[in-house]
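Sorry to interrupt, but I need a hand with the structure work. Go ahead and set the record down below:
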Amino acid sequence: MTLKTTWKCYAVLALMEILFAGNAFAQAGKLQTAIFLIGVQQPIVIQDFAINDNFFYDAVREGKPVKLSFQDLKEIKFLNPGKNFETEVIFNDGKRETYLLQPASDITVTSESSIVSISHTKVSRIAFSPMPVQPPPPNAPPVPQPPRQGVQPGTFDRVILKSGDTLSGQIQTTTFTVRTAYGTFHFVTPKIASIEFDAKEPNTAVVLLRDGDRLSGTVEVDPVLFVMTSGQGISFDSKTIKSIQFKR
């Protein structure tokens, strides 16, 4: 996967529609961040940024623990990206100081279609800015979603086993997790078009999404729950599956 493709996957999967819009105004008390990954030019933009529901980073300066409030920060530059958490911190007043960052957890991006976890070891820079206010969406009735229990007439998923058997029915597993070198993705099943498992590497697969994006990684889901067209429920070890084709 090229760096360009990697950025595209992040941009789509994490639903990064909101960039630094010139026609938006600041929402008091809330910040958004632009997360720059190592070797990737385009940032991942996160609204109302928090780490473990906290709005600060724990850090150490000259041997003393410090809390870096996001409200005071303009930018965090990792001096040795991928190696350690030594950073240059730029404050809103222009002051620059060196801190050893101590992140409490990975950075998590949540959307309706996926949850992405980004390790700080993959980050080169974090830029802070006021979070823009978006106009409320027009009032519209929600689109009803069919239940995922049982098999809907005229639609079916296909599970092709390594033994050569092909089964038709409906996948009951609601989420598939894919671990890649740049982060962990949690996809809701309706967003996936197919999963092609590697014949030699267990759980390694290529995941094709309905919007055309694809990524390779380790698929972590066991067991895969399935209801056959006959109504019989069955579960599969992912190591026995060659591919899954989702039909909706």
